[in-house]
Amino acid sequence: LSENVKVPEPVVEKEGYLLKAKIADGGKKLRKNWSTSWVVLTARKMEFYKESKQPALANLKPGYKPECVDLCGACIEWTSEKSSRKNVFQITTVSGNEFLLQSDIDFLILDWFHAIKNAIDRLPKE
Ligand code: I3P
Fold this sequence. Notes:
- By secondary structure, the protein is an alpha+beta fold.
- It has helices at 55-60, 106-122; strands at residues 14-25, 28-29, 35-41, 45-50, 67-70, 75-78, 88-92, 98-102.
- Strands 1, 2, 3, 4, 5, 6, 7 and 8 form an eight-stranded antiparallel sheet that branches.
- D-MYO-inositol-1,4,5-triphosphate binds at residues 31-32, 34, 83-85.
């Protein structure tokens, strides 16, 4: 019976396209590779979907799992050293994953920064 219980989807606080580069996984440095990602922010996490004209469809493909970022205890900060691009901030998770996010559009990246920072500040640190 419990298998039939549907867990409600968390409320989406913000979603949209950003340029993303994952630069570390579990503390291990990765080669930087920027790509456009459909980003979905909820209270506790962010999800990065592959670029798609109809992002919702990415959900429906069997076996497709977006990359998931746990915001509990995460850090967010602007960085000018880690990229030659403007408007770049970094998110570092407790598990040692590091992501750079970027947009050339100033108000857009500012909105994202504050939305993610607010989410992190509302969460417990552990
Ligand atoms: C990287 C690529 C990235 C660039 C990075 C390069 O080269 O050009 O876009 O980061 O610079 O190393 P490759 O594709 O050969 O891996 P930015 O665009 O963020 O500057 P970096 O080495 O200074 O991080």
